[in-house]
Specification:
The protein has 417 residues and is α/β, with parallel strands linked by helices. It is built from 18 helices and 13 strands.
Amino acid sequence: MLSDHIGQGQGDGPETGAMNTSNPKRREPARPAEGLQRVVFVPKTLGRAPEAGQLADAGIALHEQLAQISTLADNAALLDEADALVVELNPAVPSEMEAFDRLVHQAPDCPVVAAVEGLTLAHARTLLKTGALDAIPLPFSTEDLKQAIEPARRPARPASRSAPAARRHGKVIAVVGAMGGVGTTSIATQMGILWAEDARVALFDLDVQFGSAALFLDVRPGMNMANLLEDAERLDAELMQSMAAKHSSGLDVIASPTDLTPIDSISIDSIDQIFRVAVQAYDVLIVDLPTVWTEWTVRVLQRADAICLVTNMSVPGIYHARRQIELVDANGMLPKLRVIANRAPAKLFGKVDTRETETVLGRKIDYLISNDYPTVSSANDEGRPLKSIRGNAKVVKDLRSLRDGLGTMLAAEGAIA
């Protein structure tokens, strides 16, 4: 239910599981016997696993490691050595659910099991929807664990093997307008063009009813988002890249559907599968979203590493931006939100005074994009980069600052592959 996603604020559960990762405590197990499943258990406190002898009799070699959920997806060595990962979390804490969701989808080669104290059917259903292999109660028994990880059983690894292939863990930037007509697609397309200068970048137009990204880029895709949604289950990185239209800048584009698509016809499962593949195929994924809030748009925002809320400085724009900010905050996603004021009025000397606007918003404006209607209109009409029309324009400099600022933000969370 949409209310399940929108109605949860940051205070809906106790903040548990804050851990020190600078020098995490770790129990190093003896080298597991041949054929045992290697399981890493990430609890909030040590000593909650079943007895080692019972686990060994069940064919399981388990060790416990304290770590923050948010850091696990970047621990390639741990994920490569584990046949399965068991993570303790509290589904009532939005930040833990968000970190768990990202772990599941950024580490698709390592099955993840959720361990929950006071596990309910509703918790299990929610966790399975994220892509968890299973959900088990805490404390769990050897039999609970065995049944949960049995689908993940793999052939024993050889004692000596070559280094694993590098995983690409692309970053997702969701761009959403406070309301229609504020320039969301212009910013998404031109930012994508700039980012494509030195990274593999895709723009997904998920405004499935009124998307214009392909028009603004003057590309004529043979396939579009409807095809991705229909074929989500058989997608892989190579197929996804082959379905994208290619802009002259190097930007890949998945256009919105050509036929009007019911906004509620998109399933969360399809969205999960598409993003699971996309972050393996691209360094940066820019997603142009509709302004409406549905279960699947909430899912995209949860999956995103950064959320760009685009508004203008009109009274309606600021009013609707304030409402969007409140919804983002209610879902525990405020730390990754960046507010962009588009078409900021030109000022000959000094900076634009945003104090009154920020007072109404209840937060600062992170980026100002200058108003240069003739240049932006020409770029959109011709499908050209702004930089090729007026390379020294203030709007181009502003968009570069936006790209660089987001890049710094994402790099602080983990280097872009």
